[in-house]
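Students often ask why inverse folding is considered easier than folding. One informal answer: many sequences map to the same fold, so there is more than one right answer. In these notes we will look at a single instance of the problem. The structure comes first.
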């Protein structure tokens, strides 16, 4: 069997190695148009920032090492320029010599990835405008940064790559302005959770310009990034990271059925619409595991798994790819931000009515030194309590909690099932009631009618005319350092004695710092027959969201929120 693979990185290299492990006699050729195979895309920003100092670390394999281990013929700087599915051959261009030749296949795997979106903006081809996809791009950026010592860089786009680039350039002492068209960074997060990301970026000195569209570059002696409102942000270079799009010109030429944004339509065996042609990775349309709808998920985990599935099926096993849920994690300066499944915004756009629990939990037992707070938001379907997604932002232990939640979603669990998970505990690592368990307890309380919640978005609508009771149960000191307008303060430990101060026939809206004391207060009052609502997330969370809004307004005033 002769297998030809187009693209030698995440999906392609995985498929090649797996095919070899399953079939010692297969003839396997990988064509890769860049100069490197199996490189660490995910490590590229960290090489620019100096965190990874040895460029050898970026390439996990070389054609020679791949041949030595797997007897796979890897040809870098070879671009597949045509697929002839009736002849079962590909036309290949050797980018070094210019020679063009045909190569036959019995099975073809396409793993060409996704390319950075590069709109035809005026000045986009200027040498000071960069995108980041592969090792060559990385060296270009690194050379510019070390050779030209830019003082100010504009990063355009606040997704994974943009945020990682902003952090790494900032780490080099460069002034960084990050411009994002949406009102928030990091689309996998809801706006409330993104507030924590914004605060960290601002605290670490990144100028955030949110809600502003870039529409060109000024490319004279003085370089600048032009916004749609005419304002120009002067800088020494720009990195464009406004998203990726499936790199599927070849698939289109081959006549494969295409889907979202020109992605390759595959079935769950990673087979395309043409027999013996498989496709995997960022170039393919998959099914979103949570919504069941077609989706594009450009992440390394899915690409690797799909490469394995394609290889299995090529070699006669029967493997299926069950869809992706976009589990991701990112370091943002001191923070870790992680998400899985869908957020509230996506649920709303899909017409899924959802509810949420929001927790401010310690990463491990409070009495053991070094615990740090994480904010966790778990989104579930209102009617069925099916887990839809989770977002966590904190310092320690974020990655393990998100992976537990990702597994729970995969297992089709309900949010209240989280209460039962038997998770490992010792004080340096967790609490006897892990934050994931706590999310389950909270959902259980909601389901059983023990707790009714109110949310940040309800706050401006709460009447301040005395028709409802607004109650803050934190300590007096806590309230002095910031409180919601119109809330009366009765610390939770005084509540039983002072319960007579609360009018019984009016709904009571309670808040505390993290949501725990307000829950206790809510149970005290409910036990006495009050109609009580507990604030989801606590004042700490409320203040972060509110402060983010104020910062955005302040940016507008100083011309930073431009569109
Ligand atoms: P790729 O790994 O991109 O490989 C495709 C290869 O195909 C490319 O090298 C390309 O040169 C080659 N190719 C294309 N067309 C042809 C052709 N016609 N002929 C020959 N070769 C061709 N994901 C995460 O999960 N976590 C992260 O932290 C993360 N960080 C990232 C950081 C950066 C800077 C980038 C760019 C991506 C990051 N990703 C991350 C995304 C992840 O790298 C991709 O999802 C994954 O690599 C996709 O695998 P793939 O095989 O589909 O494509």
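Output (designed amino acids):
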């Amino acid at each position: 069997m002769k297998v030809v693979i187009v693209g030698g990185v995440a999906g392609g290299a995985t498929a090649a190695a797996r095919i070899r492990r399953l079939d010692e006699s297969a003839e396997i050729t990988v064509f890769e148009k860049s100069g490197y195979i199996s490189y660490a895309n995910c490590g590229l920003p960290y090489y620019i920032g100096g965190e990874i100092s040895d460029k050898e670390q970026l390439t996990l394999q070389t054609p020679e090492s791949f041949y030595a281990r797997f007897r796979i013929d890897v040809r870098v700087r070879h671009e597949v320029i045509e697929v002839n599915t009736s002849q079962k051959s590909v036309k290949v261009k050797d980018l070094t010599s210019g020679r063009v030749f045909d190569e036959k296949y019995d099975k073809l795997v396409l793993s060409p990835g996704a390319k950075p979106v590069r709109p035809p903006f005026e000045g986009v081809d200027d040498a000071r405008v960069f995108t980041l996809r592969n090792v060559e791009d990385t060296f270009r950026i690194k050379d510019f940064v070390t050779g030209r010592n830019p003082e100010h860089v504009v990063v355009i786009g606040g997704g994974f790559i943009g945020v990682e680039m902003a952090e790494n350039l900032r780490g080099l002492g460069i002034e960084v302005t990050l411009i994002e068209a949406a009102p928030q960074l990091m689309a996998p997060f809801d706006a409330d959770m993104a507030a924590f990301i914004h605060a960290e970026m601002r605290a670490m000195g990144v100028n955030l310009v949110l809600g502003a569209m870039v529409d060109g570059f000024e490319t004279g002696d003085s370089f600048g990034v032009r916004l749609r409102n005419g304002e120009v942000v002067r800088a020494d270079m720009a990195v464009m990271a406004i998203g990726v799009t499936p790199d599927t010109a070849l698939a289109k030429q081959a006549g494969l059925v295409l889907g979202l944004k020109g992605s390759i339509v595959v079935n769950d065996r990673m087979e395309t619409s043409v027999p013996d042609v498989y496709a995997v990775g960022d170039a393919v349309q998959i099914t979103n595991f949570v919504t069941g709808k077609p989706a594009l998920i450009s992440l390394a985990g899915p690409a690797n798994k799909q490469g394995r599935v394609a290889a299995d099926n090529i070699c006669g096993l029967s493997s299926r790819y069950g869809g992706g849920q976009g589990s991701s994690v990112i370091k943002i300066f001191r923070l870790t931000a992680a998400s899985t499944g869908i957020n509230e915004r996506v649920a709303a756009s899909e017409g899924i009515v959802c509810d949420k629990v929001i927790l401010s939990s310690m990463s491990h037992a409070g009495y053991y030194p070094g615990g740090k707070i994480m904010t966790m938001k778990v989104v579930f379907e209102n009617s069925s309590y099916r887990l839809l997604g989770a977002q966590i932002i904190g310092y320690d232990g974020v990655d393990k909690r998100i992976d537990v939640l990702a597994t729970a979603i995969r297992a089709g669990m309900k949010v209240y099932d989280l209460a039962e998970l038997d998770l490992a505990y010792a004080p340096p690592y967790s609490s006897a009631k892990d934050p994931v368990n706590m999310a389950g307890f909270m959902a259980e309380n909601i389901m059983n009618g023990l707790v009714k919640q109110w949310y940040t978005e309800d706050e401006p609508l709460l009447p301040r005319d005395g028709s409802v009771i607004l109650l803050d149960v934190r300590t007096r000191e806590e309230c002095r350092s910031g409180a919601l307008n119109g809330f009366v303060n009765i610390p939770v430990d005084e509540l039983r004695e002072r319960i007579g101060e609360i009018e019984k026939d009016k709904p009571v809206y309670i808040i505390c710092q993290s949501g725990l004391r307000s829950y206790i207060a809510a149970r005290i009052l409910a036990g006495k027959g009050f109609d009580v609502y507990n604030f989801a997330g606590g004042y700490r969370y409320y203040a972060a969201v509110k402060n983010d809004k104020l910062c955005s307004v302040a940016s507008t005033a100083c011309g930073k929120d431009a569109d």
